Each structure stands twice: as structure tokens, then as C-alpha cells.
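Notebook, student rotation project (T.W.).
Task set for the rotation: take a protein with a known small-molecule partner, predict the structure of the complex, and write up what can be learned from the model alone. Partner molecule chosen: fe (ii) ion. Sequence and SMILES entered below by T.W., checked by me.
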Amino acid sequence: MKRKRLDEIIRVDHAGEHGAIAIYKGQLTFLNLIGDKKTSAIVSEMAQGEQKHANEFDRLVEERKTRPTALMPLWNIAGYTLGALSVLGGKNSVMACTEAVEDVIDKHYSSQIEELEDSGQEKEILKTIKEFHAEEVEHEKIAKNEISENTPALKAFKKAVEVGCKAAINLSEKI
Ligand SMILES: [Fe+2]
Ligand SMILES: [Fe+2]
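Predicted structure of the complex:
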């Protein structure tokens, strides 16, 4: 695997994990504001997982001397805003947001796993991504189970979040 490609992988995953933290921060701030303790507890647990993931990619960025994406400040604002807005639609849209994000991340990590396995290199990073992938799939399942009704509006919201996440992934690999 070329150095340039490995840098892209580390850069985009680093961005994504920090983006996830920003989304959960926005959700938690507003969930706590409206006093929804039950939803807040579920979100908080998943946010802790993202912190662990982000810490590991912080370490990898440092170790591999990978340049983080220049778009980090944008993802922080966009993520936080998305999280905050999702609270307006109640618990279902909070969970729909996670389901949609994790669905994209599930596929994103799956394709990186395939790529790394094919390369036969970077076994340590492969192991890390496999572990994180399993945890993201778990988040996706939790969120899906917490949604009581999939209205057309909720489906449209998920679609929009998916499109946004895919665009963010494409930009964060290169920029
Ligand atoms: Fe994560
Ligand atoms: Fe996650």
C-alpha cells in the first residue's frame, strides 16, 4: 500500500471519529437542555465509544505523521449543528441520525478492511479498523432498535444525513 493511500485512510477516519463526537456533543447538549435523560444516556454511552476511536486515530495521526484534514473546523460545526437539529425531531430523529451515520461508516470501514486485507500490509491498523467497525455496527443496531416509527419524514432525514456523510468522507480523504 502506498504511503499516500494510507495517509488518506488515516486522515478520513480521524476526521470521521471526531465528526461523530461533534454530532453526539450537539445531541447531548440539547437533550440535556430539554431534560430527556433516557435518550441522553443511550447517546452518552455511544459517544464514549467514539472518544476511544478518536483517541486512537489521534495517536495514529501523530505516529504516522499524517496531515489531518483541513476541514476539521467545518466538520466540528456541521456535526454539532446536525446533532442539535436532530434533537428538534425528538428521540426518533436523534436515533435516525445515528442509524444513518453508522450505516455509511459501516460500509466505509468495510471497504477499508477489504482494501487493507488485499494489501497484506498494515496489520495493526487493519485490526483497529475491524474492532471499530464492529462497534459502529453495534451503534447502528442500538439506534435502529430505538426508533419507534419510520415515517416518510424520518426516512428523508436519514437519506439527507447519508448524502452529507458520504460527501464529508470524500472530501476528508483528500483535503
Ligand atoms: Fe467511531
Ligand atoms: Fe459509532
